[in-house]
Amino acid sequence: MTDRSPQNPEATTSAPATEPLLLSWSTHPAKARPLVTALVTLFLIVLAALVYLLTYSAIFTVIAALILYGSLTQYFTKTAYEFTDTKVRVKYVVNKIEKEWAQYRSYYADKNGVLLSPFPGPSRLENFRGLFIRFAGNKDQVLEIVRQKINYVSDKD
Questions:
Q1: Per residue in 48-87, pLDDT tens?
Q2: Which residues contact 77 (CB under 8 A, 6 or more apart)?
């Protein structure tokens, strides 16, 4: 039996060291675009009022408002991104996605971010199975790491 007392430091177990971060940042689209946020909020209020006028039900109105807001949580809340040597981490308000770089076989960049796709070429399913990484003024840094980790050249870069 191993003595794990403070006098025997070699026998103590420690947590594995965390991987060093290649890049870490967060985005909050609602804060970055206040005019659009005001218009979207106004639109949600108008839709909730319309639901109430059509149903005269406070319950349906609350349910509709929650569904509408829920569909836009990535816009209204902060999202944190982390790239390590082997993983991509995306932290939303209610969940965290952590995937290995090896799971992605292609990528497609646009002006807002880059879609990491598990498919070797274009597929209709990539919007459901892929992972969208939003830029925050760091497009060049993000794309440089993505290019290093995913051996696929898209024509949209």
A1: 999 999 999 999 999 999 999 999 999 999 999 999 999 9
A2: 28, 30, 92, 93
